[in-house]
Amino acid sequence: MQPCMKTGTPIFVKNSYNPDAPGTRIVKSIGGKTKLIQAITSRKNVTLVDIVSSRMLGQYGFLAEVFSCFAKHSLSVDMVATSEVSISITLDSGYDLAALKKDLSRIASVEIKTGKAIVTIIGDVRRSSEILSHVFKTCYLLGVQVQMVSQGASKVNISFIVNDKQAADVVKGLHSDFFEKI
User: Structural domain tally of the chain?
Assistant: First the structure.
C-alpha cells in the first residue's frame, strides 16, 4: 500500500467470497464535503484489563512497568486509555491472564473483564465532539454503558467498549442515527 499512498493511486479492496460486489475504494482524500462518519464496525470477544496504580500520584515509570509486563507475556494490546494513575487496555479473549495479573498486581490493582466488544467509528475525527455526542446519546437511549473510549493515533477512528451482548444493537442504533436520518 505504501507505493500507492506515495503516488496517490487508489486501492480497491474486494470481497474474495463475493468478487462481483463493488468493494471499497481507498483514496488519499475525498474532495468536497464528506459525511461525518464513513463506517461503523464491531469486534466481539474482547477482554478489558483495568489497571490502577497502587503508588502515589506523580510517580514515574508506571506505564513502562505495565507495558513491560505485557511484553514479558507476549500479549498484543488493541486499545489503550490512560490517566496518570490508571490504564485500561483491551486484548483478544482466549489468553490465560493469570500470570499477567500476578505480575501486574505487584504494582497495581487489576480487574480483568471478559465478554466485551469494541465498536469503532471511522470518520472525520476533527469533529470528534459531534461524533461522540451521537455515540453517547445512542448508547444512553439503548441503556448501554460505554466502558472505555480511545481515539486512534491515525486520527480517523474512535473506538469504545460495550458488553458483547449489546454490540449489535449499538451498531444498528448508530447506523440508524448516522446514515438513515435525513
Answer: 1
The string of pLDDT tens digits covering residues 93-130 is 988 999 999 999 999 999 999 999 999 999 888 888 99
* Residue 109 belongs to domain spanning: 47-115
Confidence (pTM): 0.80
Distances (CA, A) of 113 to 49, 152, 157, 158: 6, 22, 23, 21
* H or E element, residue 7: helix 2-7
In a domain, 168, yes or no: no
Q: Rounded CA gap, 146 and 3, in Å?
A: 39
User: In terms of Cα–Cα distance, which of 180, 182, 178 is closest to 35?
Assistant: 178
Q: Is residue 157 part of a domain?
A: no
Q: Which residue has the cell 468493494?
A: 23
